[in-house]
Every structure is written in C-alpha cells, then in structure tokens.
Amino acid sequence: MKKILVTGALGQIGSELTEKLRSTYGEDNIIASDIRRPENPSGIFEEIDVTKEKEIYEISKKYNVDTIIHLAALLSAKAEAFPKVAWEINMGGLVNALEAAKQLDLKFFTPSSIGAFGPSTPKDNTPQDTLQRPTTMYGVNKVAGELLCDYYFSRFGVDTRGVRFPGLISYVTAPGGGTTDYAVEVYYEAIRKGAYTSYIAQGTHMDMMYMPDALNAIIQLMEANPDRLKHRNAFNITAVSAAPEHFASSIRKQIPNFEMGYQVDPVRQGIAESWPDSINADAAKEEWGFEAAYDIDNMTVDMLEKIREKLKKDSA
Ligand code: SER
C-alpha cells in the first residue's frame, strides 16, 4: 500500500484508521472520504456518496491511489430499522467500490463481521469455514459481501482482503447503531455516573476487540504475503469473548463501586443471540500471523484513562 482511499473515514473505524495510515504512509498519501465534509478536515478529504456509481472510481483516479479501504456501511441495529437503505448502502456501496478496484487495478479491503453468522452456526469456537445463514439484514449484507469480494478476486483478479470484526471498542469516535455498542457506552457511563444499564442481557457472550488491535489487523492483512492467504476476505479475528457482566467486573477493578443494571432491548438482544458466543481465529494466526495484544483488563485500564482525559478536555 502506498496511496490509499478510505471511505467512511468519519466513522468509528475510519476516524482512527485514517490517522494511523497518515502517520504510517505519509499525510499526502491518504485520501479520507465520507458522505459529508467535516468542518476542519485534518488532511486530504473528499466528499463521496458510495451509492453513486462513479464517485469512488473518480476520486481513486484523481489521486492515483493503489488501495481502497472501504468502510462506509450501516451497522446491525440501524440496518434492522432500515433494511432497504442498508441494502443500498452496504451492497450498492460495496459493488461500486469493487468496480473501481477492478477498473483501476487496486488492492481492496472491506470488513465483514461476526454478524455474518446466524443462529444455525456453531456458537462456540465458531470455525473459520462453517454454516452462514444470518437472520439480520446486516448479516445478509455481510455474507453477500464476503462472497462478492471472493468473486471479484477469482473472476477478475482483484486483490481483495478482509476480516470478520468482532464488536469494536474505542474512545475516539462512537459507533452508531450497532448491537455491540453497549461495550463502548459502559465505559463512558462508568466514568460519568458510576453505573450503566445494559440493553444486552447478562450471560450474552460476543467477541470483542480494542480498536488498536483492529487497526493493526487491517494493516497487517493488507501487507501480508498474498501467497500465504487461503481465505482472503473473511478471516475470523477476536480478542475476547465477553458478556456484559465481564465488562462490569473488569471496570470494578478500577472503579470498585461501579454498578451494572439491565433493561434488555429485544431487538438488539435478538441480534446478539443470533451471533456466535466465541469465534475461532486460528486461520488469521496461521495465514498472516495475527494475534490481539489487548485483553479485557488492559483494554479497560486504557479506555478509562483515555475517556477521562477526553471528558476533561471537552469540559475545559
Ligand atoms: N459491531 C457491529 C454491530 O454491532 C458488528 O459488526 O453491528
């Protein structure tokens, strides 16, 4: 990767990835894009509506990029509320991005998710290659996306790569409309109120990962030797399998009086229950050497410290 276009650059992953790519590959080599222009973009920024057929192609050509990292998408709960819009953005955007990669001969990354699995998938130690019959629109989009990326690789030779992200936890940009968002909210509320009411029920396990590991995964996979990649577009990756009470006990090691309550949202609970409890990430380790550095406790320490600094700055 030398010159990279990032779509969805203002989102949860994009906002941090863009900065990391700028410091790794040079300010002038990263083109951030999103549906709206921020007030003060911190580097090169272009407005792109991924659903418009030619916009990704035109900006890729204008800057002569060699890689597209396509992150523009709706998350699971939002997609359940607006399924047709989700199809248009998640699938329409993806095919437009893949077409640009095909026509300009670019490397390509887009994330899949634990949402690509469904209730009939084995729940524990979910294999890399297994049954995928998701029951959410987001899941349908993710499975179709994995297949579409495989297709552009095998049919047109586009160098497509991707991972199935677990729930991502970060303090920089809030996720929006995901099922795993509680695992971000819990840290903010722990600091603000010393208490959190979870919309996901006790005992509901999902895979989770701290953002620095997720960013490293993207770069590591994109720089990996293609001869070693047997899977390409949908590597299971994980850091921890955790339920709300595990976040509560990890936070209590830092904030002893922290209290966790429950008021379950049936929609997001239903989505969570249709996903695996813990996935097997051996293929990512074997094929490109990925291992997460953060477990739940060192993530908790870092999250709480960074959120405290952020809230102090915001109120200053
Ligand atoms: N974090 C995402 C969501 O909850 C899953 O990929 O929708």
Automatic annotation (TrEMBL):
GO MF annotations, alphabetized: L-threonine 3-dehydrogenase activity
Superkingdom per UniProt: Bacteria
InterPro entries noted in UniProt: Epimerase_deHydtase, NAD(P)-bd_dom_sf, NAD(P)_epim/dehydratase
NAD-dependent epimerase/dehydratase domain: residues covered: 4-237
Coiled-coil features, chain-numbered ranges: none
Any Pfam family matching the protein: Epimerase
GO BP field: L-threonine catabolic process
Family of this protein: Belongs to the NAD(P)-dependent epimerase/dehydratase family.
Protein name: L-threonine 3-dehydrogenase
